[in-house]
Design goal:
By secondary structure, this protein is of the alpha+beta class. The protein has helices at about 1-10, 80-95, 105-120, 130-150, 150-155, 220-230, 235-250; strands spanning about 15-20, 25-30, 40-45, 55-65, 70-75, 170, 175-180, 185-190, 200-210, 265-275, 295-300. The protein has 2 domains: about 1-120, no CATH class; about 130-305, no CATH class. The strands form 3 sheets. Strands 1-2-3-5-4 form a 5-stranded antiparallel sheet, with helices on one face. Strand 6 (about 170) and strand 7 form a beta hairpin. Helix 3 (about 105-120) packs parallel to helix 7 (about 235-250) and helix 4 runs parallel beside helix 6. The longest helix has 22 residues, at about 130-150.
């Protein structure tokens, strides 16, 4: 991100652009527009259907003499420079694995609009420590287990955790709920009755992860797992849906997520089969006066339900 900001600052004049890099599959450029505003420019084969400006970014569609289209996203207010650099970096990196160039315009515009909605909802900052750890656990299980079991695309589409559904993954005739806690913890928090009380059998996966140093070869962080997941998705539409779902949740790959405070090592994983006799709160056994409940589940007590 520092390098991207330095590149913007080194450009002078108007209507001056340079390609983001030699290996990027899309015709993406950074530069200054005709009003000397920092600008991210995409040259593409198809015209986007809809492009709106925001208080931070001026959006413009253009038609070139060679028949190709341009999407210009220019920084309006210099006080948002740092956020604009983060935005440009996210567009550049998230679109790096796009295989179909004809989808480039749609991908960039949808990504921009998701950014616009996220910032309007005041989610422009870092996720909380609890959100970071929970999201990392879900992404780790998606990468290391579910994609291999169900296929990358189907597994990614089954992920409902960022949408705050009752279970994190709902796939085929089963579901998976992932809890991420520190090693040595002997309980997990269950945030609703419906999380474990379902008619179909499901799986509770407990990921034990601790903070670690940046020199640990086994460390993982959100950005590392995110890019690994994107690289495994070969379908552009699924890739687009996956990354935009995370953006709606408030995650995009900021460099801060690679700091020591947000780097973890997975120490252990425990898997439990949740079936009709699993000891959890059941809606049918509660009085009608109880509308909502949260509770703490003891792991030593449910060891007979272990799957591994």
């Amino acid at each position: 991100m520092d390098n991207l900001k330095e590149r913007f600052e080194s450009i002078h004049g108007v209507d001056v652009y340079q390609r983001v890099d030699e290996t990027h599959p899309l015709d993406l450029y950074i530069g200054l527009d005709d009003m000397a505003r920092w600008t991210l420019l995409l040259v593409c084969n198809t015209r986007p259907n809809h492009l709106e400006s925001s208080k931070m970014i001026y959006g413009k569609i253009g038609l070139r003499k060679d028949g190709r289209w341009t999407i210009s996203l220019a920084l309006i207010d210099r006080q948002y420079q740092d956020m604009f650099v983060l935005f440009c970096g996210d567009i550049i990196d998230s679109s790096r694995n796009i295989r179909n160039k004809d989808r480039a315009a749609q991908f960039v515009v949808l990504r921009y609009h998701e950014w616009k909605k996220m910032l309007a909802n005041s989610k422009g900052g870092l996720l909380s420590a609890e959100e970071i750890k929970g999201l990392l656990g879900e992404m780790y299980i998606l990468d290391t287990e579910l994609m291999s079991r169900y296929g990358p695309e189907e597994a990614a589409l089954s992920w409902t955790g960022p949408q705050l559904a009752h279970q994190d993954f709902i796939i085929a005739d089963t579901w998976y709920e992932v809890k991420t806690v520190s090693s040595g913890r002997d309980s997990v928090n269950v945030s609703s009755i419906e999380q474990l009380d379902t008619e179909s059998k499901g799986h509770l996966i407990v990921v034990f992860a601790d903070k670690t140093s940046l020199t640990n070869e086994r460390l993982i962080n959100l950005n590392m797992v995110y890019y690994r997941l994107l690289s495994r998705l070969l379908n552009d539409e699924v890739k687009e849906s996956f990354s935009n779902t995370l953006l709606k949740y408030g995650y995009y790959p900021r460099p801060e997520y690679e700091d020591a405070d947000y780097s973890f090592e997975v120490k252990d994983i425990q898997r439990y089969l949740v079936k009709d006799d699993f000891p959890c709160l059941r809606r049918s056994e509660l009085p009608a006066s109880v509308i909502k409940a949260e509770y703490i589940l003891s792991l030593p007590v449910i060891q007979t339900y272990r799957e591994d």
